[in-house]
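User: Structure please.
Assistant: Input sequence and predicted structure:
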Amino acid sequence: MKFSKQDLLTMLIGLFLFSSCKDPNTIGLGQEDSAIKGDLYDNTTVTSQTQLDDAVSTANLERYPVGFMTDPVFGETLAGTAMVVNAPGTSSGSTATGKYRFGKNAELDSAVLILGYAKVSSGSSVITPFYGDSTQTYTVTVGQMTRDITHEHTFLSSTEWGKDANEILGTLVTNDKNQPQGAVYIKPLTPFKVTEIVAGKPDTLRSVVPQLRIRLNTALIQSKIVKMDTLAFDKNNLFTDKFRGLYVSAKATGKGGMIFFNFADTTSRLQLYYKRDGKTLNTRDTASVIFPIRQGISPVLSYVKHTYTNPDIKAQLQDNSGKQFEQTYLQALSGLRNKVSFNFDDFKAKLGGAKVAINKAELVVDVTPDGDAHFKPAQRLRLYIYDVAGQRVKVSDNNPGSQSNPNGDARGVSDIEFGGYFDSVNSRYVFTLTSYVQDLVSGKIKDYGTFLSPAPLIYPSGGSPLDPLATTAERSILVGPKKDAAPATKRMKLNIFYTKLK
């Protein structure tokens, strides 16, 4: 099965945009009957440069990446996730309730690492926790950590958390019918049934949320956990000091892809199934125990590495001359962003020194017809600026003032009006930058840097975070700006609808 994003939200946004596309010289800020007429200027000097994005903290992500992609345009991307396995009953910090004991002569039947897929939804809109080609063969590897990440204080995605996780505790090969337990497929939206052990009762078949289940080496887990000093189960920090957690990574054939997992609730865990002496002489009981893996208890951290092989991308990353390339590149997972700059000298010369009212300004960002069936353009971009201190802040149009945001701008608009959503019909993104351009042209503010980068279609926690994201793997190839271009030329451009004031 191949996953694509035919999202209702995108369709609704498209309808909103198309319904507003009337006479381009009649752009209103209020009701249609009070429309403001204005002239169109679309020849602003715009430049766009591909840059490396910053590494990001991977603590407390809504979605954690594991995967390997070979993009024919961008190159290779790998991501792995390190996770602390906590003592049974641990709810926070070093507290372990219940002081778990396996019982006499405990013998492990199986150990399963359960990773819940990170589906994100809002209303009828759903972002699948996968990007790429799910039909390829993925080899998922679980290694034993030697690094104790419970003592770390910085959590950047550029840190190779699993560098020393060389002892392999388990592997899973997907889409392989020759596996002992049968073929396992990446189906992040499909629930299925599993047999669960219920102490003192018959085993039961129950439905579970979509998840990836990886069997670990029984002998190694028997030695490392079941045979562990029982006192280590009394406090979580004693347990995590002896069992340093797990690092999950993946390799893939073909183009591969990126899987996103959920560690925000109780879905992801290490579950052990075992036998022990029963209360009656010469009897054996079956039991299971859960070792929670959750970011609210102990760290869960991801590592991301990009290897860019495209000569054009490499040239742009090394170029400091300000040369404008024909196309520029955006990539999530703290990959690539664009720095966009505006020069209004020609526009001001056209005004002849007169003041101007910007009725509407929109940045149009065209996408090249890449046509890759698996690595489709990002469903949403975000636009942010630098302040004088080089910190990321929202542009005024995307920062409406409200009771909860008293420092916002009264001219700000909603997220839908601000834009940045992919228009699949016209292969472009459009941002509303009316107040931002007004302030730049009038000299009220200075452009310290305007940036574009991929963003998830739905922000899991709402709002519009400005930091680089490790929660989406999408990318886009943009058409570069062109000065004095012929009509209908695809390019990055700034449309300014204005009224010259006397």
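Residues 224 and 243 are 7 Å apart (CA to CA).
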